[in-house]
């Protein structure tokens, strides 16, 4: 038995490129190629976020919906912890036991943040799509954090207590981060892939009649990409555990780089790019409106306010919605709930002027009806 927590096959040969790239240091500077190729896309994405930070801040202040701030915070948290991991891994000596332990803890920490975000997106889309309250968001984040914590603790324990010999470096006598071992990696990837494929099938099964499923294509493309990624990762881990060593390692190298480098930009592009790019963004997930559902006490969406003018101008149609049920982010045909001060600034001059004229005309009659004695 060669692998303590993996396969019955001997470890991958040291001279294979797919393993060599995981530990090779540039000019013995502790800067590993693997950390560098993960650092570069994350650093470029941080630069992109910094350039657009002022515009994003104005957009977030202009909306009363907390869901966008939640996604934006998750994106920042993921990319920052990824940068920290890469920077620390480039400074510590992984050959030393303490340095190797720190490196593995950082890998597990990054996985915790990414997995919590991954599950939060799915739950927001499926279970809480019709809600946009701070309490529901807190419950979702708490639930996903606990599940992700259990997952990463299991992964970290397996990684530290029973490291997989597939990722052992004989020449330097230390272990690379092995994602909890091939059996754990294979089984967890397979479970996630099955869950995502089931989600993709929901719109085509009778159960859809009882669920408020998203209708936007971007949500299902996001699920499809994760399903394909986890499937490919399960195949690679399976090849490492029971089949061809070299090809399996190359497969998981590619899937690992894609996940740790491009997953956070994928979340931003799928769920935030439209919000930050247009003045009146469409809803994140479209749903069939449910009229009989009571709103939460802490619901932050604002009620619809109609114009006082009975003769609508072009500007009225630009600045005004048409349905009283479009105040929440996830309901069909809705628009993003706006801050009252910001929405008041967007009202057309004709509507404001018309509303003032009506108030002036109505006030005297109301006053007379209250103070004149009845005959």
Explain this structure.
The radius of gyration is 27 Å and the shape is globular. A two-stranded antiparallel sheet has the order 1-2. Residues 1-14, 288-336 and 350-370 have low confidence and may be disordered. It is 62% helix and 1% strand. The N and C termini lie far apart (105 Å). The chain has 375 residues and is mainly alpha-helical. It contains 13 helices and two strands.
Layout of strands and helices, then pairs:
Blueprint (H helix, E strand, L loop, with lengths): L16 H7 L9 H19 L1 H10 L3 H26 L5 H30 L7 H28 L6 E2 L4 E2 L6 H20 L15 H26 L2 H27 L1 H5 L36 H6 L20 H6 L3 H23 L4
Antiparallel strand pairs: 1-2
Strand order of the largest sheet: 1-2
**Strand element count:** 2
CA-CA gap between termini: 105 Å
As residue ranges, the low-confidence spans are 1-14, 288-336, 350-370
- Rounded Rg: 27 Å
Mean pLDDT over all positions: 75
Largest sheet: 2 strands, antiparallel
The percent of residues in helical segments reads 55-70%
- From the spread of the alpha carbons, the general shape counts as globular
Provide a brief overview of the structure.
With 375 residues, the chain is mainly α. It contains 13 helices and two strands; from the N terminus they run H-H-H-H-H-H-E-E-H-H-H-H-H-H-H.
Jot down its keywords.
single chain; 375 residues; mainly alpha; two-stranded antiparallel ribbon; 13 helices; 2 strands; 62% helix; 1% strand; disordered N terminus
